[in-house]
Amino acid sequence: MIADVKRYEDVAVGQELPELRIPLTRTMIVATAIASRDYQDVHHDPSLAVERGSKDVFMNILTTNGLVDRYVTGWAGPAAVVTAIKIRLGAPNYPGDTMVLTGTVTAKHDDRGVEIAVRGVNEIGPHVTGTVVVRLPGQGSDT
């Protein structure tokens, strides 16, 4: 569900985004790897993933990046423009787990940019940490 349009003036440093729980299915992990043209066998072949030292197939970074974008833009609304995403991967996302995304507004910039610290955690630990900057519309504007 897309949120209403967030305005720059309505956002405060320290504001927390609502958490987003994402069930991690095998189909999702395989399909999103293939959709992003990441054909590495560790993202779609369980036996080869195990042979290479993993317990199962695992999510690729492009999918994680997309989910972080989805999380922030779902909160910010359709008028938000993502200007930067910087993430770091940690624990793998495996099928059968759930990743819980959380975020906090950490800064506001003069260009109507809003910086958000994002974290995605699964049962092993932090899968993704990073920051996203979105430009929000100002009072009385749509862009």
| Overall shape | elongated
Tell me the fraction of residues in β-strands, as a range: 25-35%
The helix/strand order is: EHHHEEEE
Enumerate the spans where pLDDT stays under 50 for 5 or more consecutive residues.
none
What fraction, in percent, of the residue positions are helical?
Answer: 10-25%
Distance between the amino and carboxyl termini: 20 Å
Count, helices: 3
Please, what is the average pLDDT? 93
What's the Cα radius of gyration?
A: 17 Å
Q: What's the total number of strands? A: 5
Arrangement of strands in the largest sheet = 1-3-4-5-2
The major pleated sheet works out as: 5 strands, antiparallel
**Which structural class do the helices and strands define?**
alpha+beta
What does this entry look like structurally?
This protein is an alpha+beta fold. 22% of the residues lie in helices and 33% in strands. The protein contains three helices and five strands, in the order E-H-H-H-E-E-E-E. The chain has helices spanning 26-35, 46-51, 61-76; strands spanning 16-23, 81-89, 98-108, 113-121, 126-135. Strands 1-3-4-5-2 form a five-stranded antiparallel β-sheet, covered by helices on one side. The longest helix has 16 residues, at 61-76. The two termini are 20 Å apart.
